[in-house]
Amino acid sequence: MPDATLLSVERLSVSIGPTRPLDDVGFALAKGEILGVVGESGAGKSLTAMAVMGLLPLIGGRIDSGAVRFDGIDLARLPEEAYRKLRGRRIGLITQNPMTSLDPILRVGAQIDQVSRLHMGLDPAAARARSIDLMGRLKIPEPLAVHDLYPHQLSGGMKQRVVIAMALAADPDLIVADEPTTALDVTVQAQIIQLLVDLVRDRKLSLMLITHDMGVVAQACDRVAVMYGGRVVERGEVGAIFAQPRHPYTRALIGCIPRPGMAPGALKGIPGTVPSVSRYPSGCRFHPRCGQAQPRCHEVVPSFEGGPTGDGVACHFPSGVPS
Ligand code: SF4
Ligand code: MG
Question: Is 143 a domain residue?
Fold first, then answer.
């Protein structure tokens, strides 16, 4: 585990009714670090973010076991009252769809102002100045004019910049961004990720960046946790994982990154379908889709070799199968 750990999730298991969508999930995020949490939809990434944000009760979810520690605070046992002070102030959230964060009937500038007024006690003029400065840093053209607009008057990319400004407005320590660019045009996606990364680096914040795209991980992240079927299957430093991915699923995700010069439509997904939480396969949950699955994979759950938060992989044959 890195020295200055800000957030650690250890052996986290979450249930929703009779299902167990997160099973023994863990990772650590150091101060100033950008961690990618990557996997297809249905892997449990958003649920992990909700567990960190204390929002599981909204969807009937519950932490069965494990710990979520943020700067010495045990979030898994934090009363909602205390959580409310933490959210926005110390942990900022960026969701996939900006309209879940924006109020359609309030001017966007007022919505950014609100965050620093509420959490930092700024007066209206100071809050407005702060918002306009942030909007400028997010390369929102004419921030003074945009401050007075309503969300529907902005493009998707501009709306998402406003949401990022809101997440940053109270100067939090940690940003949790759940697929922040998925709803946007491909050309806008990389720009917004870069703006977010630059701001996070500049302020030495920590970022948990959820994505289904290994290209985004390569562009933005220091470390990565690969999730599949409600578990973490591989964790490590981004350079090391790209140089030598050990889990077949990690290799498959890397194989899905579009490359320059690739014909449109040439991009192939990973064959097979994501398992449903109510019917997880036995043994290794990836076995029905794994090209190197052996009889043992059908029966025995591969244990994670790196401990609860360290680097490592959960696969019986991380170096391939002997031929
Ligand atoms: Fe494939 Fe077996 Fe490794 Fe699972 S444990 S990823 S099925 S080789
Ligand atoms: Mg999701």
Answer: yes
- What separation in Å is there between the alpha carbon of 321 and the centre of ligand 2? 32
User: Does some domain include residue 251?
Assistant: yes
Nearest atom within ligand 1 for CA of residue 287: 7
252 lines ligand 1 (CB under 6 A): no
Residue pLDDT tens, the chain, 323 long:
445 999 999 999 999 999 999 999 999 999 999 999 999 999 999 999 999 999 999 999 999 999 999 999 999 999 999 999 899 999 999 998 888 899 999 999 999 999 999 999 999 999 999 999 999 999 999 999 999 999 999 999 999 999 999 999 999 999 999 999 988 888 889 999 999 999 999 999 999 999 999 999 999 999 999 999 999 999 999 999 999 999 999 999 999 887 777 766 666 788 899 999 989 999 999 999 999 999 999 999 999 998 889 999 999 999 988 77
Is 286's C-beta closer than 6 angstroms to any atom of ligand 1?
A: yes
Please count the other Cβ atoms lying within 10 Å of the Cβ belonging to residue 190: 15
Q: How far apart are CA 262 and CA 224, in angstroms?
A: 25
Alpha-carbon distances of 87 from 91, 173, 204, 244, 259, rounded to whole Å: 5, 11, 19, 37, 38
Q: Is 197 part of a structural domain of the chain?
A: yes
CB 317 less than 6 A from any atom of ligand 1: yes
**For the chain, counts of helices (H) and of strands (E):** 11, 11
Closest ligand (CA of 282): 1
* Nearest CA among 103, 118, 164 for reference residue 138: 164
Domain final residue pick, 123, 154, 171? 171
Domain boundary among 154, 171, 188: 171
Q: What is the ipTM of this complex?
A: 0.98
Q: How far is the CA of 178 from the centre of ligand 2 (A)?
A: 7
- The residue segments making up the domain with residue 70 are 1-90+173-257+301-314
Does residue 277 line the site of ligand 1, with CB under 6 A?
no
